[in-house]
Amino acid sequence: MSDIAVRVKKIVVEHLGVEEDKVVENASFIDDLGADSLDTVELVMAFEEEFGIEIPDDAAETIQTFGDATKFITEAS
Amino acid sequence: MFNLDGKSALITGASGGIGGEIAKSLHAQGATVALSGTRVEPLEALAAELGERAHVLPCNLSDFEAVDALPKQAVAAMGAVDVLVNNAGITRDNLFMRMSDEEWQSVIDVNLTSTFKLCKGVLRGMMKARWGRIINISSVVGATGNPGQGNYAASKAGMVGMSKSLAYEVASRGITVNCIAPGFITTPMTEKLTDDQKSGILGQIPAGRMGDAGEIAAAALYLASAEAGYTTGTTLHVNGGMAMI
């Protein structure tokens, strides 16, 4: 797992209070990890701060899974 | 009770009668305050009166770029915005039949759209802090209507619906969003009324007098406090009984 994926996973685990092994590539924040829509906004805020990037609203909407997040952040940073 | 030590509050319209009293009340309870308004002189005078823990942040709320910048300036000055008081408001009264699009739009822009933008601008910090207080100063006419004030009443009623919607969204994050709806309060704005107008108004107020800006500030202080943590999505009517709603 890449360094970025490790850091993303840490944020997801801490923020959503889920087991690390539940955070797999296709795990949907809302459907699989129990996030509500405001949690996903907060996750994006946390990603922005951790990686020093800006994630525009239209891009944020496409980040639905752990895999989406690592892919977007890897490309952006 | 109602101690605000260590809290930072941004107050718009702080150069006006009600905004100034709100700033003084929050400051007296220990809050650091950022005083915003269009007229710099009264803001500077108020800051000088308050002494420490007071910052002046002039802003024209009809300039949306300036509105977007204001929360960031407040964070730069105070480190955070824990309490936001959207108090600034303008009137452009006219009979509905004669009201121009410009009169309509300018009141909606300053009173409602700037409130939306400022709420949005402070939410990120409040969500991270898991604590926040947003207090939007509406008006009794937002609930009752008032001839000649179709634009103003719409903006003030809009504030109430907006605040309730936001209150739903952020309640689980320790952020409360409430409105205060003042009735007729003695301020430079109401000083301009004629004696006839004043006696007409007083006849509709069971308390038999106009309200004092300090009585609005007391309501704001309550809503800003930790003690009001379970009060959200509500509108506190402070109007001497003129509308019991």
Automatic annotation (TrEMBL), chain A:
UniProt cross-references to Gene3D superfamilies, sorted A to Z: ACP-like (1.10.1200.10)
Pathway info: Glycolipid biosynthesis; KDO(2)-lipid A biosynthesis; Lipid metabolism; fatty acid biosynthesis
Domain (Carrier): residue spans on this chain: 2-77
GO biological process: Kdo2-lipid A biosynthetic process; lipid A biosynthetic process
Keywords (A to Z) from UniProt: Cytoplasm, Fatty acid biosynthesis, Fatty acid metabolism, Lipid biosynthesis, Lipid metabolism, Phosphopantetheine, Phosphoprotein
A GO term from the CC aspect: cytosol
Modified residues (O-(pantetheine 4'-phosphoryl)serine): S37
Signal sequence residues: none
Post-translational modifications: 4'-phosphopantetheine is transferred from CoA to a specific serine of apo-ACP by AcpS. This modification is essential for activity because fatty acids are bound in thioester linkage to the sulfhydryl of the prosthetic group. 4'-phosphopantetheine is transferred from CoA to a specific serine of apo-ACP by acpS.
Protein's job: Carrier of the growing fatty acid chain in fatty acid biosynthesis.
Family according to the record: Belongs to the acyl carrier protein (ACP) family.
UniProt protein name: Acyl carrier protein
Higher taxonomy: Bacteria, Pseudomonadati, Pseudomonadota, Alphaproteobacteria, Rhodobacterales
From TrEMBL, chain B:
GO biological process: fatty acid biosynthetic process
Keyword Zinc-finger: no
Binding, NADP(+): T38, N87, Y152, A153, A154, S155, K156, I185
PROSITE patterns to which the protein is assigned, alphabetical: ADH_SHORT
GO molecular function, one term: NAD binding
EC number: 1.1.1.100
Name of the top EC class for this enzyme: oxidoreductase
Superkingdom of origin: Bacteria
Keywords associated with the record: Fatty acid biosynthesis, Fatty acid metabolism, Lipid biosynthesis, Lipid metabolism, NADP, Oxidoreductase
Pfam families: adh_short_C2
Domain Ketoreductase: from-to ranges: 7-183
Record: active site: Y152 (proton acceptor)
InterPro entries with a match to the protein in the record: 3oxo_ACP_reduc, KR_dom, NAD(P)-bd_dom_sf, Sc_DH/Rdtase_CS, SDR, SDR_fam
Pathway given in the UniProt record: Lipid metabolism; fatty acid biosynthesis
CDD domains, A to Z: BKR_SDR_c
Reaction equations catalysed: a (3R)-hydroxyacyl-[ACP] + NADP(+) = a 3-oxoacyl-[ACP] + NADPH + H(+)
Keyword Lipid biosynthesis among record annotations: yes
Family: Belongs to the short-chain dehydrogenases/reductases (SDR) family.
Subunit structure as annotated in this protein's UniProt entry: Homotetramer.
NCBIfam families (alphabetical): 3oxo_ACP_reduc (TIGR01830), PRK07231.1 (NF005559), PRK12826.1-2 (NF009466)
PANTHER family given in the database record: 3-OXOACYL-(ACYL-CARRIER-PROTEIN) REDUCTASE (PTHR42879), 3-OXOACYL-[ACYL-CARRIER-PROTEIN] REDUCTASE FABG (PTHR42879:SF2)
Function: Catalyzes the NADPH-dependent reduction of beta-ketoacyl-ACP substrates to beta-hydroxyacyl-ACP products, the first reductive step in the elongation cycle of fatty acid biosynthesis.
Protein name: 3-oxoacyl-[acyl-carrier-protein] reductase
